[in-house]
Amino acid sequence: MAAKAEAIGPRNGHELAPLNARADGSERPHGVTIVLQGSRGSLQREAPDDDRAAWSGKLQFFLSIIGYSVGLGNIWRFPYLCQQNGGGAFLIPFLIMLVLEGVPLFLIEMAIGQKMRLGSLGVWNTIHPWLGGIGISSCMVTLFVALYYNVIITWVFFYLFNSIRLTADQLPWSSCPQDNGTAELECSKASATVYYWYREALDASPNIEEPGVPRWWIVCYLFLAWVIVFFIVMKGIQSSGKVVYFTSIFPYAVLTIFFVRGITLPGSSDGIWHMYKPKLEKLLDPTVWLDAATQVFYSFGLAFGSLIAFGSYNPPNNNCVRDVLLVSVCNALTAIYASVVIFSILGFKAYTMVETCITKEIKILAREHIGGFTVNSTEDYYREEFPLLNSTAVKAFNLTGCTMSKQLEEAAEGTGLAFIVFTQAILKLTPAPFWSIIFFLMLLSLGLGSQIGIMEGMLCTIFDIDFFKRLSKPVITGVVCGFCFLVGLIFTTGAGEYWLKMFDSFAGTIGLVVVALLEMVAVMYIYGHERFTNDIYEMTGYRPGLYWQITWRYVGPFIVTCILLSSLVFMLINHPTYGAWDANEVNLLRIFLLMYTY
Prior knowledge:
Elements: E1 16-18, E2 33-35, H1 58-69, H2 72-84, H3 91-116, H4 120-127, H5 132-161, H6 182-189, H7 192-201, H8 216-233, H9 237-262, H10 268-276, H11 286-300, H12 306-312, H13 320-367, H14 379-385, H15 391-396, H16 404-409, H17 416-426, H18 432-462, H19 466-469, H20 473-487, H21 496-507, H22 510-540, H23 546-573, E3 577-582, E4 587-592
Antiparallel strand pairs: 1-2, 3-4
Helix pairs in contact: 1-9, 1-13, 1-18, 2-11, 2-13, 3-11, 3-12, 3-13, 3-22, 3-23, 4-5, 5-8, 5-18, 5-21, 5-22, 7-17, 8-20, 9-13, 9-18, 10-13, 11-23, 12-18, 13-17, 22-23
């Protein structure tokens, strides 16, 4: 038997094997360098486990996958999509995409990474040299997402440090500024939380064409975010694997605390019912299905290349099928659980807003002597008599009716769901600073957990390129983080949130769908479904049955293709827009990205 070559220097899972070294240690005259690991038909070392970074244990792997998959999207994106896409009706396309697309693709990425023990670029190059573009495309999408994902972490840092107060009155978004000037007037037209978000946190510009200079405080927090990410991922899973014990477990503790507090608050049941009440007509909108597919990719971290990298650190005999099913169930339940928690708090917020609204409108009706209202009229009297009022009077005095449903429908405001709506609800909790601190600590841990996986997938792809394998991983990681920080400065301007919405709408939607479709086609029809099935059987002892074969080969690619085509048609018909803050009107104006049509 040939002797094993001695390892030289630290191993990070991306080393090369020189072909000019014989088994007996003598030199061949001409040397060629190739990747160590590969699938059938590719060259492999006898003991690849010695050359590839590995998880310290099953728990570390599971927590890393959970920490990566369960991210800000479960708190910020998923409830927002539910609000925008029909409440509980959105669960229908989400679960369909989960079963027919998410879980099968999840297993493809985990299994192919575990079998070949390579990153995204190496896997697709091994299957066929022409498929390396899938790995590059995945890396590019991952780069775009990493750019703006860390900006959200930046905003979390801003709110976290400003939450360190003694009382609710001291929270900076609890009241409007008292300067008797334009700031106080602008704040009074909106609300203290809205004003704080757009003026104090973002200092938003009127449109994307007038961004202004980078806001120094956002630049500082963005730098802090990238420094922390660098130190976490600089040594790969050897460093990041220790952090996941906190980033994966702490959010569940905070969610449970909020759940116990939330269900005891008035109005929480209305919020939860609003979450599950379906609006089935929304299912006819193709963008709802696109959002559902995208959310599956976001919530599971599919098509980023990160799962391939994580799978490559597993031993070849790991039961990846069981891991996929466990993580899928855990992730889906977490998304629903987090939505229940969020909507219970939003229901409480809506309840307090309705009470304030009713008190205000009773005073108006009493002042105008309408409907027999007096300043002492009760809320029950208001609810009974308001439907009987003359519609002309209602319109003349701009009365709304103060209903829970109206308040809940207006609860989600894009990225402002966490930074406007929830911060306003936190003011009603006692002690407010405590709830604010643990909420933003939860967002921070969720964001860092996902960012760790995103960066690992991107760096693993970079190290699949021969040139970079000769360089130190901390050096490459530092260069990548520095580059991302410099590019991310565009998000620190007054138009930063507008740019983030553009990236979120275009960089991480259709691109992910295209990459996922190409991944399925590459594995099923180029690598071969029978070969892939046998690989899983050899690794796990389980042979994928009819469900897997149908979803891999037919249903999954068909669904993704339909979503892709319908979404492209919809985007061509409808001009893309973004919401810009208008200080004069104190609202968000829809502005066309394409100002002229030829």
